[in-house]
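Quick one:
INPUT:
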């Protein structure tokens, strides 16, 4: 059975549910145009429903490098290949960048890929914790080296 989400957008009942989630929920068409973003995603990114209606594209919210990477991953996925969730840098409307991890699923209409439905998780806090941990490890290693050379 085909997984179908119409080009008219997300059903109101689903939109209400998706807007309660702490993750970005989105839908793209096969041309990588953004068709839907839940309220969580709109708040986090600063984009609006009007921006989407006016033609927000994946290339507007990803760097060129990440747009190419995402395009290749999406094409592979729509061709039936397994693609693992990937990390990207999302560019907010104010040009601030945030790290995200994207999970996505193809949408089929009449047996033909018609787009992508997905979820993105903000990795900002995780990346900050990793950086603090890295700095702490470096400081600890430096301290051990100093103690070893003083002996």
């Amino acid at each position: 059975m085909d997984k179908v989400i119409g080009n008219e957008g997300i059903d109101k009942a689903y939109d209400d549910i998706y807007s309660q989630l702490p993750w970005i929920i989105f839908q793209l068409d096969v041309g990588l145009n953004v068709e839907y973003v839940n309220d969580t995603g709109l708040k986090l990114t600063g984009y609006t429903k009007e921006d989407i209606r006016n033609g927000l594209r994946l290339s507007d919210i990803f760097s060129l490098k990440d747009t190419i990477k995402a395009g290749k991953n999406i094409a592979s996925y729509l061709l039936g290949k397994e693609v693992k969730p990937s990390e990207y840098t999302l560019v907010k409307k104010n040009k601030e960048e945030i790290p995200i991890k994207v999970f996505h699923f193809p949408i089929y209409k009449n047996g033909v890929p018609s787009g992508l439905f997905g979820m993105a998780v903000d990795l900002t806090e995780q990346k900050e914790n990793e950086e603090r941990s890295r700095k702490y490890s470096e400081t600890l290693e430096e301290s051990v080296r100093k103690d070893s050379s003083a002996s």
